[in-house]
Amino acid sequence: MLQYDSYIKLFENYGYAQKNLIPMLMKSFEKRYIFPVTKNFLRFAKGKGFKELVYQNLVENTSSEFFLSRMREQLLSPDKVTKEFMNAFFNSLNEVTTELFVIFKELKNSY
Prior knowledge:
69% helix, 0% strand, mainly alpha
C-alpha cells in the first residue's frame, strides 16, 4: 500500500498511523524483512524504493514530509524501539560488509 500516493495521504491523516507507523516499521526491521522495511523508509524519504528510483516516470512518488519528520523524531528519541532498531540496523550492516569483504578477498586470491 505504501507504493501509492493515495494511501500515503490516507495514512498521514489517520491518527493511529501518525503515531504508530514509524515505530512499527522499526520493530519489524530484522533479517527476514530488512529489504521491505528499508524500501518503505526510502519511499517516505525519497518517494521511491530501491529499483523504483530507476523508473522515475513509471512509479508514483510516495514521499511524505509528515512521515519523514516522524522518522527523524523517532530516530532522535532515546527509547527502546529506536535503540533496538539502530542495533539491528548496524548489526545487519556489519554482516553485509563482512560478507562483501570475504567475497572480495576470495576473488582477489583466486586470480
